[in-house]
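To whoever is covering the structure queue this week,

Two jobs came back overnight. Logging them here so there's a record in the thread.

Job A:
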Amino acid sequence: MNIAKTAPWTVAGRLLQVAGRQPDRHTILQENVATLLTQFKPEFVDSLQALPDEKLMDGLNGSYANGPLHMALKLSRDIRQKPYTDEQVMARLERLDAELKTASAEVIAGSPGFPCKFYVCGSLLKGRFGGESDIDLLCAAGADWIKAQPWDAGHRDVSFQYIDMPEQEDRDKFVQAFAPVREVSAADIQKPGFLASLYAESVEHKGYTLDEGHLKAQSPTIVREVETPPEAARHIMWSLPMV
């Protein structure tokens, strides 16, 4: 996919310009918007590309009839309600990194003798982390620890799906349903800049480098995969146990 010639990338850039965003300060936002646009019907994106600038924002309203509702809501949020700079994304990663370190340490301390396991999934691994994104983790922890959790308290921006399945095979099958997913150790999580390093790896997979907090294309080819909700995630609520 040629980054300079694709309709999603071009339309994303024009949307940011119409909204008054400086391209060099919003490289992550432009890529995230381009990725969201790939989730809609190609003819809809082509129709946006054909519109003059003064009608582009109004044309965006057609997203609700031409793609997944949750993607249309994210598109409107990122362009209209809560656009974000590259600096804000990196600051959020830093804040959530500290929150994750505290939360994972609490899980370990509350599950003595249990081989706790952590799995990162969600927008971070997809290379689509933004200024409003959360960190989604699956966590295999001790049954007593899981049952004792006050589900309405704690780390709201670091969302855990606790897994209490006695059979390893069942746990593995459940985890893989969230692909892409990556198992990480408690020691990994405690490393400085852990989340930023995962994000850098995820955008490298797409074809970018993260250079001083800004995205730069490694080559003309950028990978954007069509996203589908994980089957296992359709009927769960984060920070509740999966048993």
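Job B:
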Amino acid sequence: MLQNINTQENTTLSWSKNLLQKCFSKNTKNTITLLANTNFHYLLLAENSESTITFETKWENIQWNIYAIYFGSKPVKSDIQVNILSSNSNINVFMLSLLISDQEFNTNWNIYLWKDINNSQWHLLQKNLILWEKIKVSSIPRLDVYSNDIKASHGFSIDRLNKDKIFYLNSKWLSESASKELIVHGNLREILDKFVDLQEEQKKEIEKLILLKL
């Protein structure tokens, strides 16, 4: 079951279900505490926002899938902290930013794997699609490991929507705007198709919301 919330204040949330959270324009500061034996899928849609979100759990056998999509035409700042306090945890984090103006995108991911944790792993992938000439991207992935039985990896990429890609798609009889939309659509689907409980109609609504801002 999918829960859909739009929070703009300091809030502590306890969840055992999947969660879609929207942050628009105003600051958001949340702590999301996961319950026992949870397979948790979380999707953050953040437009022109400053968000501070903390995930934590003390229970074992937790599967976390955390996705974040950042977009808009104003500076974006995001601080995400994940506290892993239990063994047998599997955490996957995928972040996509769509950068479209002469502004700064600043994101910090802080992952803490505490002492005496066993048989746990995490993976963080950060992808930035630049749709503008001048963009400043600042990202600080921080991993603090206090246990030996841990597997961890991190990936980071910056991809610019350049003239060569547009020219290639134009040669396939697509206009420049249609070419841009097709590339953005492909990047969005890379996340949306992984998010369980998200219906096709909801995916299209999210795509429409984001594409209108680009």
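Note for Job B: Residues 75 and 103 are 5 Å apart (CA to CA).

Please reply-all if you pick these up so we don't duplicate work.
Q.
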